[in-house]
Amino acid sequence: MSDSDSDDWSEEWIPYSQRNEWADVTPILQDDGEHPVVAIAYSPKFREVFDYFRAILAHKEKSHRALELTADALRLNPANYTVWQYRRDILRALDCDLYEELDYLDEVIRDNAKNYQVWHHRRVIVEMLNDSSKELELTEVALQRDNKNYHAWQHRQWAIKTFDLFDNELSFVDRLIAEDIRNNSAWNQRFFVLKHFGLTPEVVQREIQYTMNRIRVVKNNESAWNYLGGILRQSEDGILNQYPEVLAFCEELYTSGVRSPYLLAFLVDLYREQSLQQIDSTESEALSRKVYSLCSDMSKKHDIVRRKYWQYIADELKSKLSEK
């Protein structure tokens, strides 16, 4: 919640300067210098809360009232690192119930799901508890609201890796991909999980079929094409063209009239690799002509924004072939 929203608090809110329990504290005003370049128009409530926060920080007060003050300050500015750090110091000093802190964070994350500091604080508390039992459910709820929330995905990966929660994650990812086949975050999570278990030849073969089946549903899906390339690059040789069925699949799509730039880019990489590996000069030349033709189509029709890149790819291949 930003400062502009601060006056939406309950009308029953009492300024700290009018609270008897805070009478012993002298607030420390913010000092922006004599001639600030940009003077921020803080609301009176914002100024007062942070004036009192600066006071308890200066005196290193760690009390329950200080903890409540940090909650007010974070409601005004949930991205303030110093307040979060001092809140953690207070929690440790008072030996507070950290499960109550997790409940508090459930509400804060609900309203600030894309705030890094909130997720970082959550991670620290979970580490202090050594208990990740709520993290998969929490991140799933956050991802239901926004399935590409980077911070939620990052926190989920951290929890899975730190506490070895991989077992059911592939089913979760399958469901997300079924709901939104273009969900790049879900495809990335799939790779993250499979790499943990090991991308054996059997797994790679299975994933090739899995990905090609989904590309058949949506041909112009960058996420699936990137995933396919990533899976193939995990082989021992790290090359794309070692699986004939992949080349046959791509050529079938191309012959049927599909002109997705992701398909064309994939074919460029396949033919380029084959051309450089081919010993027979005639065959190598035939493959290189396919690369030049596809690069020309990409630069003139399908990916004009990156035309110089495709021209570079063609020129680079010519240079390498001349050195063979």
Report on this structure.
The chain has 324 residues and is mainly alpha-helical. Among the domains are: 166-240, no CATH class; 259-324, no CATH class. Helices cover 67% and strands 0% of the residues. It has helices at residues 44-58, 64-76, 81-94, 98-111, 116-129, 135-145, 150-163, 169-179, 184-197, 201-217, 222-233, 244-255, 261-277, 281-302, 307-323. Helix 8 runs antiparallel to helix 9 (184-197) and helix 12 crosses helix 13 (261-277). It is elongated. The chain starts with 43 loop residues before the first helix and ends with a helix.
> Which outline best applies?
elongated
Number of E strands: 0
Percent strand equals under 5%
Query: Nearest-angstrom radius of gyration?
Result: 28 Å
Distance between the termini: 62 Å
Content-based structural category: mainly alpha
> Could you spell the SSE succession in H and E letters?
HHHHHHHHHHHHHHH
The major pleated sheet works out as: none
Tally of helical segments: 15
Parts with pLDDT < 50 across at least 5 consecutive residues: 1-6
- Give the proportion of residues in helices: 55-70%
- State mean pLDDT (0 to 100 scale): 93
Descriptive labels:
324 residues; mainly alpha; 15 helices; elongated; disordered N terminus
